[in-house]
Amino acid sequence: MVIGRVIIGLSLGLIIPIISIYIADLAPKEHKGFYGSIFEHAFIIGILMSHFIGIFVSFRWLALVPVVVLLFQSLLLTWQPYSPYWLVSRGLEKRGFRTVKYLRGPKYDFLSEFEEMKDVVKENATWTFMDRVKSLIFNLAYLRAIIIISLIMVFVELTGISVVASYSTSLLEHSILIHPKVASILPTTIQCISVLIFTFLVDRIGRKPLLIVSGAGIALSHVILSINSFGLQFFWPQCTQFETTTNFTHTVSGNLGVSEDFCNHITLIPLLALVILRFMYGLGWGPIPFVLLGESLPSKVRSISASVAICVLTFSNALTLLLFPYLERLIGDYFVFLLYVLVNLTSCAFILFFVPETKGLNLTQIEELFKGKVIFLRCKVRNPFVRRDVYVVKTDC
What is the mean pLDDT of residues 140-144? Predict the structure, then answer.
């Protein structure tokens, strides 16, 4: 089992940055957020399917299900088009041109996009691996981009999503009306719905507003979890004496002093918190970091910096999961959830002041934005000067 987990971890480390970069290369600039969210949607659907199947089969049989899916996926990948950036970088300009034309369609201005693509590839062609490493360290614009994306990846895990997902069954162990295994599926289903809503909002509202709203909503869910944990230990200790049996009945031992109906509803509070958390996470902090991973990193150092960002993400994931049980014993789970509240509010401030809005920009414009340069955008309605954030953006709309 350990060997299998190691292989899965290595595979995910290779696949995740490639998927984000591939989607960013193929997606038109007007809909990068929409296409970038497909990865998160597919990811959460896979988790939901595994939760659902896991109710009916053992772990060993559940481990065989992905084998069939992966074999089918491998067959479908043979029809996938290569990235036009990759084709042009290998001197296959005609194939790259046909790919862009096929992806965009005849009504899209793909000629100017392809010429811009060739310019970017030509500029990057002379760079060696060591040039990219040195540039990543000493070029302030590149360093700014990788630091911002890496900190976003840290905040992804500090939302508490991995901890809550891993310990959801124990958080719901006192649920009387709903079996914990069944209740654990509901938040995942809600997250799937919220990611679907996100796909229609991200290219209209933008990345920053959704991240801020998402972070505030996650903070609220941790407040509810903290109050629930505190209440179960000090105000409602009698409710923990209800025991859920396999046939979903319950018994009360002794004179508890609280009504059965009261305890039934109290034990649904953590489920409400998990539903809010997963919905708000799917609305922003779930899909957007991977959208930004693909579109915000400089083209010259994208492969290296994407690998660094994923390493930061996986290390943060392991660290939060390892520290949670120790912190729970040291200060109590209610204080741990309050720490997550503080971290999520901090992430909102970080997004507000330090992360540029990339909605509607192509990869070249985003790279210029991280360099601190002025980007000019044209719109039908005229408006003098719009400053979106700490990076200056001029527009006619």
Answer: 81
